[in-house]
Amino acid sequence: MTKIELTVDGAAVSDDVEPRMLLVQYLREKLGKTGTVIGCDTSNCGACTVHLDGTSVKSCNVLAVQANGRTVTTIEGLADTAEGDLHPVQEAFRECHGLQCGFCTPGMVMQAVDLLGENPNPTEEEVRLGMEGNLCRCTGYHNIVKSVLHAAEQTGVKA
Amino acid sequence: MIPVKFDYLAPTSVEEALAALGEHGDDAKILAGGQSLLPVLRMRLNAPEVVIDLNGISSLRGIRDDGDAIVIGAMTTHHDVRDHELVKEHALLLAKAAAEVADSQIRHRGTFGGALAHADPAGDLGAPALALGAQFVVQGPGGSRTVEADDFFVDLFETAIGDDEILTEVRIPKHTGWGAHYEKFVRVAHQWPIVAVAVTVKGSIDEARVGLTNMGSTPLRARATEAALAGASATEDGVRAAAEQAAEGTNPPSDLNGAADYRQHLARVLTGRAVLKAAGAA
Ligand SMILES: Cc1cc2nc3c(=O)[nH]c(=O)nc-3n(C[C@H](O)[C@H](O)[C@H](O)COP(=O)(O)OP(=O)(O)OC[C@H]3O[C@@H](n4cnc5c(N)ncnc54)[C@H](O)[C@@H]3O)c2cc1C
């Protein structure tokens, strides 16, 4: 067992974990943060995307011990829940119906937030390329792309 | 799936990492970005007893100017290679190829050194490194040595890095002002290339370097095409004629993505496209 201390969704946590434990397992099984889902288990689908120190990673392809001393944000920590609001990207996915079954949505939203952080005003092509590591089996991506562009417009006022 | 149990070491210096590697030998595995190693461990294709994580060694990260070369630390991520001003200015080909590796999340974790050490023949960074004449600095118990690009890639998943050595940095001779293009052929987004061609040219065209991805067990140079392009003008006909020789001496695999002769056809077509784009003529 290895001791880890990190910040997850704003809260300090510490635990003893097996080195082989994946970050996604740690989030789901130890912390109960089941908002982050396991899709493919091969690091292709992106459903498990979270932010590690502010950048998007596939949490099935990072060890929990590698998050020691670092900050993790999951879909559950994105919105300011105290206010009961959604994050603008979550709001945009709802507004544009950027989902059908919803399984890929946590990862899509987390990757979209990363993408817009780096490029607040993307073209449609840049959205499609920036989201290439996230697979959706329902929508054909159309409304997902619309959602990301809509979020950019809504928040772009600030940029 | 989850990996078999292992002990985890997080050294903070190269010396400490080398000592751990020396102590555990064949039972140990180096962990860089983990974007190739962790899938392998999860599928239980490998089961090291000790995993030595290089992420705590800050000296292995970063890109610096070193006179006639730029030096890229082994632990620099694909994302940082893609965006770094020194890379864009002096080794544009690498910036373009790094942008084509996998997807955004994987580029945030995967490292330049890890990808080259892994030496997957379908990896996107080997051919550009070869084309640019990269020099690989590896450190072992006896100190550092430099391996030339032509000697680094030995076979499928095999490089000149010894069992007791770590790749610490890669020197890329400056190709300031050279045009560049990485033409990657895939069926779907974020896939490994079926074939890809890495081209950088000086002027249009004084000199050309052409690297091939997935056309054999290691990255290859298309030397006959390079020779035919030197001093040629960047016209469609001239470039296509030179590109006809791009598959000479290659030995590509046949698999579900394509037969060997199809890959050789692709190499010729993609080389033509890549050269024209690199020379600004397409
Ligand atoms: C879904 C998916 C898609 C991908 N698509 C592509 C793609 O299209 N193109 C592409 O090029 N790559 C692709 N990759 C792989 C990615 O580029 C990896 O980042 C890269 O292959 C390995 O780098 P790493 O830093 O993650 O190394 P790791 O996975 O940590 O290590 C890989 C191997 O190299 C060894 N090693 C690592 N660093 C060193 C060192 N400094 N010294 C000695 N040995 C070392 C390790 O022991 C291990 O054997 C993909 C990966 C995934 C999961």
UniProtKB/TrEMBL annotation, chain A:
The keyword Oxidoreductase applies. Gene3D superfamilies: 3.10.20.30, [2Fe-2S]-binding domain. This is (2Fe-2S)-binding protein. It comes from Nocardioides baculatus. Keywords: 2Fe-2S, Iron, Iron-sulfur, Metal-binding, Oxidoreductase. Residues 2-78 form the 2Fe-2S ferredoxin-type domain. The keyword Iron-sulfur applies.
TrEMBL record, chain B:
Residues 1-177 form the FAD-binding PCMH-type domain. It comes from the Bacteria. It comes from Nocardioides baculatus. Keywords: FAD, Flavoprotein, Oxidoreductase. This is Xanthine dehydrogenase family protein subunit M. PROSITE patterns: FAD_PCMH. InterPro entries: CO_DH_flav_C, CO_DH_flav_C_dom_sf, Diverse_Substr_Oxidored, FAD-bd_PCMH, FAD-bd_PCMH-like_sf, FAD-bd_PCMH_sub1, FAD-bd_PCMH_sub2, Mopterin_DH_FAD-bd. SUPFAM superfamilies: CO dehydrogenase flavoprotein C-terminal domain-like, FAD-binding/transporter-associated domain-like.
